[in-house]
Amino acid sequence: MHTKVLFANDEAITAAVKALARGGLVAFPTDTVYGVGAHAFIPEAVDRIYKAKVRPREKAIPILIAKAEDLHLVAVEVPRTARLLIERFWPGGLTLVLPKNPSVPKEVSPGPTVAVRIPDNPIALAIIESLGAPMAVTSANISGHPSPVTAQEVEEELGGENRTYR
User: Fold this and answer.
1) Sheet with 26-29: strands ordered across
2) Which of 11, 37, 68, 87 could pair with 135 as two cysteines, CB 3.0-4.6 Å apart?
3) In this structure, are residues 137 and 144 in contact, taking their beta carbons and an 8 Å threshold?
4) Alpha-carbon torsion 80, 86, 88, 94, what sign?
5) For the stretch 36-50, what's the b/e string if a residue is b when 16 or more beta carbons lie within 10 angstroms of its beta carbon?
6) Cis check: omega of the bond before 91, within 30 degrees of 0
7) CA–CA separation, 111 vs 161, rounded Å?
8) Looking at the domain covering 10-158, what would its CATH class be?
9) Which helix (H) or strand (E) covers residue 139, if one does?
């Protein structure tokens, strides 16, 4: 699969969701930096994130969800303190580390916990909502490089016809 940069509109969101459903990667803006994401429940797709970023396998990949009601898909327990934080800070940059639902692939998180948040970005939310599933998402850069804040930086870092993630 080759990396393509699309401008955000309904057609691009539809194309992104189709790519994700087929196990592809998509780079998009979040409320913090640009992220590269995959369908969280397609292990081969999550594996592509590690390859694209040259990311160490022991580093878990956070999950983005569209709404707090989807937490049960990725976490088995949400303590009262976490619920209070969710009410106050979601959507937004707050990431919670919670006990992992067994359905979350080890490629996302090899340990007993999972990092999860709801982004405060309409493009990110539209993609996640349209996919209808949680996404494994991390910054769209080679591990150790600065996190990209523009689409051009993503294309320079991960894009181009010469970059293939299989």
Assistant:
1) 26-29, 34-39, 135-139, 63-64, 113-117, 96-99
2) 37
3) no
4) positive
5) bbbbbbbbebbbbbb
6) yes
7) 35
8) alpha beta
9) strand 135-139
For 134-164, how does the pLDDT look when each residue is reduced to its tens digit (9 = 90+)? 999 999 999 999 999 988 888 888 875 445 4
Residue pair 145/131 in contact (Cβ under 8 Å)? The answer is no
For 113, counting Cβ atoms within 10 Å of its Cβ (0-12 exposed, 13-18 middle, 19+ buried), the class is middle
Spatial CB neighbours of 61, under 8 Å, sequence gap ≥ 6: 46, 49, 50, 55, 107, 108, 109, 136, 137, 138
Distance CA 62, CA 47 (A): 13
148, 107 contact by CB (below 8 A)? no
Q: Are 45 and 159 in contact (CB under 8 A)?
A: no
Maximal C-alpha separation, the chain: 48
What pairs with residue 138 in β-bridges?
36
Q: How many CB atoms lie within 10 A of CB 109?
A: 23
Q: What is the pLDDT of residues 60-71, one digit of tens each?
A: 999 999 999 999
C-alpha 85, offset from chain centre? 21
For residue 60, the Cα-to-chain-centroid distance in whole angstroms is: 11
Q: Residue 90 has which token pair?
A: 């979601």
